[in-house]
Specification:
Blueprint lengths: L14 H5 L16 E7 L5 E7 L9 E5 L34 E2 L5 E7 L2 H10 L1 E6 L6 H6 L12 E9 L2 H7 L2 E9 L11 E7 L4 E6 L4 H12 L6 E4 L16 H13 L3 E4 L2 H7 L6 E9 L5 E11 L9 H9 L8 E9 L14 H19 L3 H8 L8 E6 L5 E4 L4 H12 L4 H10 L3 E13 L4 E8 L5 E5 L8 H13 L6 E5 L16 H28 L6 E4 L2 E4 L5 E3 H8 L8 H6 L24 E7 L4 E13 L6 E11 L6 H20 L32 E5 L21 H13 L5 E2 L3 H12 L1
Parallel strand pairs: 1-12, 8-29, 10-11, 14-15, 20-21, 27-28
Antiparallel strand pairs: 1-5, 2-4, 2-6, 3-5, 7-15, 8-13, 9-10, 9-12, 13-14, 16-17, 18-26, 19-20, 19-25, 22-23, 23-24, 26-27
């Protein structure tokens, strides 16, 4: 029998291509001869009225083919971009135009679009455009937005895009009646993801067929396809969107469409030549999306054991100048904040505020790091107040294994009940205590103190809603060579889909792993999909791939039963060959592929071999070559939907050292226990955790968006925006797994893509606080921040 691949550490098939320089990103796309290049004029002001745009100095520049401003846009292209996820609480949703009309609301907003023979000419032409601005006061930061003495949008009172509240029980009353009460004020600053390749789009218009081909670095090929078709007035069937290798997504590429994804194909159609745009690094800083920024106020009531009796959370969320992605981030914060705990009575309210800064959309973790930070800082504060061990306070509040499914009584970001499907939080905590040697830390601290060193330990727990709907699909096709082609509509940007999905198909269909090829993000191969985000790909597409492979297998067995004159129950598929158990009678899947599509001619070796099964006395000559209800081809298509999200969970712990003189923070050990249900490939999951922890370290210690009061981003380059190098990421992250299968999908899996990043800020804050002996309430924390905190504490 073929060895099962599910759960095995199969080497990634993607690696060789990338390691040898074979990656093909948007900038590598060759759309054909005559490609033109685009550049964008972006606003230098955070808030200003556009009084006039003079492009006369550009029109005669040699090599310039077109210049567009908002006045040149017509029909749907001249309308605001869509609010992708409307919500009743978003009472004042606003989105930008493809090119600014009348007003700009953040530095970097697109004002004009130039197409030229090359990027150099396009950039030079952009510099010649003269815009007359009336500069307006800028609203920067949550405090300024709340003060509302200046407005981002004149028609949005108080800069308030939305206010939303959910409650279970009477939290204020429960807190007032509790034996113990605490209040905390917490803050997390803005950050942003930095993919290797930023946003990029290439378009080619075929005038002979009225067909558009678009290559774009996106997390939602089908979403871009629908948006482009709608905005350009095209039949969706005449738009093909192809996503090549994506050099990092992390959420910033889930917006669909970005202005350039509309302007590039518009220009390609108008000019009759391919057009390419790839943003530069500064453009990514000032015109792509940010996340994280929140101010939080927590009130909690608890008993002598630290058991939560009431929890009341209010927070203010900075969503930037526009709201294309609705309220997804703050809704996730408000619901995922609860983690693995039973909160007693719970009330949460948030205000989502406009500022004259770059838009906010999900960034790996998508609101969960902020929620985890609020809850875990609260747990640490309770433990400190009571003088109890931090793990004990958490354990007493855990949802217990026998309580699943556990309904919190809230509504999650997908509009479904916040109902956890499975988990074993006490078991995870016990694993983590052993992995980090929690009980032995006091001895280690004493040893370090004798050497003049300060060390601290921290932990944090989280639950992550994954695998949100509404659906994903997959197509599996066995070719006459016996090779298996798998197509799924979602995109891939480092999640090892080519490996993991091939493992699923190889197991289910009984073929060799090396004979399975997976294609993602090509609407020509799979036109129906949602996208890769929210840790949903393995849950949704993995399940769809399994179902499609199962359909293909069922058809193969039916065909083989006829060809081999055997009962389906007596057949098995091993290494791509269907055989009758206990005999030497067999038929390759490639031959069955020919039989499933009975062409008249023997055009290759496979079709010649198939003739022995389609002629002779044994064959019923009156039977139809394709049975009623069947379709030609050995293939299967299926879709997976889910009634609600699956809920992965995990716990992280870290030991840090803080330098007594320089206040530098160094991570000595980092441990992770993770539960994403059944593991398809443990090595892939661990790679996702490693990457997530690295991003979490960046968010906890280095990365922040530093705006001045006029809305200028002061650190919009890698000279000034700090990211962790390999020297700053914990060496040898220790990982242990727990598997509590989800009952909501046939694989029993839960998502893993964002797990590594979620609790890191909470863990590092707790460890630094433990080392220093005073509260840490704002993240990220730099050496200068820690030095200032020390000075404040001394005074």
């Amino acid at each position: 029998m073929t060895t099962k691949l599910m759960g095995q550490r199969v080497q990634r098939v993607e690696d060789q291509r990338f390691l040898r320089g074979g990656g093909r990103f948007v900038d590598d796309v060759d759309p054909g001869p005559g490609v033109l290049h685009a550049a964008v004029l972006r606003s230098p002001h955070a808030h200003a009225r556009i009084l006039d745009i003079d492009v006369s100095g550009v029109l005669d520049v040699p090599g310039v083919h077109a210049v567009y401003t908002h006045d040149d846009l017509t029909g749907p292209m001249a309308e605001p971009l869509p609010v992708l996820i409307p919500h009743p609480a978003l009472t004042h949703g606003r989105t930008q135009y493809a090119l600014a009309r009348d007003e700009v609301n953040h530095v970097g907003e697109a004002v004009a679009f130039v197409v030229a023979e090359d990027r150099y000419v396009a950039e030079d032409a952009v510099a010649r455009i003269v815009v007359d601005y009336e500069v307006l006061p800028a609203v920067v930061g949550i405090a300024a937005a709340r003060a509302a003495d200046r407005l981002v949008h004149d028609d949005v009172p108080g800069n308030l895009g939305a206010r939303m509240e959910q409650a279970v029980g009477d939290a204020p009353a429960a807190i007032a009646a509790a034996p113990h009460r605490l209040e905390l004020d917490l803050e997390i600053e803005r950050s942003a993801c930095m993919p290797m390749e930023g946003r990029g789009t290439v378009a080619r218009w075929d005038r002979d067929t009225d067909r558009l081909v678009l290559w774009t670095s996106t997390q939602s090929s089908t979403g871009v396809r629908a948006a482009v078709a709608a905005k350009l007035g095209l039949d969706i069937g005449r738009v093909d969107v192809i996503t090549p290798d994506v050099g990092g997504g992390f959420g910033v590429k889930i917006v669909h469409p970005w202005p350039e994804e509309l302007l590039v194909p518009m220009a390609a159609r108008a000019l009759g030549r391919p057009v390419k745009f790839v943003e530069d690094r500064r453009e990514h800083f000032v015109s792509s999306a940010h996340e994280r920024g929140q101010v939080q106020h927590v009130e909690v009531g608890f008993d002598d054991d630290g058991r939560l009796l009431g929890l009341d959370v209010e927070f203010w969320h900075d969503h930037g100048a526009y709201t294309p992605y609705g309220l997804i981030v703050p809704i996730i914060t408000s619901t995922q904040l609860l983690g693995p705990y039973k909160p007693g009575a719970y009330r949460v309210a948030f205000s989502s505020l406009y500022t004259n800064t770059v838009i906010v959309t999900p960034y790996r973790g998508a609101g969960r790091p902020q929620g985890c930070y609020a809850m875990e800082r609260t747990m640490d504060a309770i433990a400190g107040y009571l003088g109890r061990d931090r793990t004990e306070v958490r354990a007493v509040n855990f949802i217990q294994p026998h309580e699943f499914p556990y309904d919190h009584g809230l509504i999650f970001q997908d509009g479904r009940p916040l109902e956890y499907d499975s988990g074993d939080y006490p078991a995870s905590l016990e694993k983590l205590r052993k992995l980090i040697d929690w009980d032995g830390f006091d001895s280690f601290r004493r040893e370090c103190a004798e050497q003049g060193r300060r060390v601290g330990i921290g932990l944090a727990c989280y639950v992550e809603g994954t695998g949100v709907g509404p659906y994903e699909g997959a197509h599996v096709h066995v070719e006459t060579t016996g090779k298996v082609k798998v197509a799924t509509g979602l995109t891939t940007q480092g999640q090892s889909h080519e490996t993991a999905f091939a493992q699923i198909v190889a197991d289910e269909l009984g073929v060799r792993f090396c004979d399975v090829e997976v294609v993602t993000g090509d609407t020509r191969r799979m036109p129906y999909a949602v996208g890769t985000f929210a840790s949903r790909a393995a849950v949704m597409s993995g399940s769809a791939v399994l179902k499609a492979a199962r359909r293909t297998k069922e058809k193969a067995l039916r065909l083989a039963a006829d060809a081999l004159e055997a009962d389906v129950a007596d057949l098995e598929i091993v290494d791509g060959v269907v055989g009758v158990r206990g005999t030497d009678r067999s038929i390759p899947l490639g031959t069955l592929s020919v039989l499933s599509n009975p062409l008249r001619y023997a055009f290759d070796e496979a079709s010649k071999a198939a003739t022995q099964f389609s002629v002779g006395d044994a064959v019923d000559r009156t039977a139809l070559p394709v049975a009623e209800g069947e379709q030609p081809g050995l293939e299967g298509t299926d879709f997976h939907s889910t009634p609600r999200a699956t809920y992965a969970s995990g716990m992280h712990a870290a030991i840090v050292e803080t330098d007594p003189d320089t206040a530098e923070i160094r991570i000595l050990r980092y441990a992770v226990v993770h539960d994403c249900g059944h593991l398809i490939n443990p090595m892939v999951v661990e790679g996702q955790i490693h990457g997530g922890v690295a991003q979490g370290v960046g968010g906890a210690l280095y990365e922040r968006m530093a705006y001045d009061e006029s809305g200028q981003l002061l650190n919009a380059s890698f000279m000034d925006f700090l990211m962790p190098y390999v020297s700053e990421v914990p060496d040898g992250i220790e990982i242990d797994h727990l598997e509590t299968p989800s009952p909501l999908n046939p694989l029993g899996i839960k998502g893993a893509g964002e797990a590594g990043v979620i609790p890191v800020s909470a863990v590092i804050a707790a460890a630094v606080e433990d080392a220093e002996g005073f509260p840490v309430t704002a993240m990220p924390i730099s050496p200068s921040d820690l030095f200032s905190l020390r000075e404040e504490h001394r005074s």
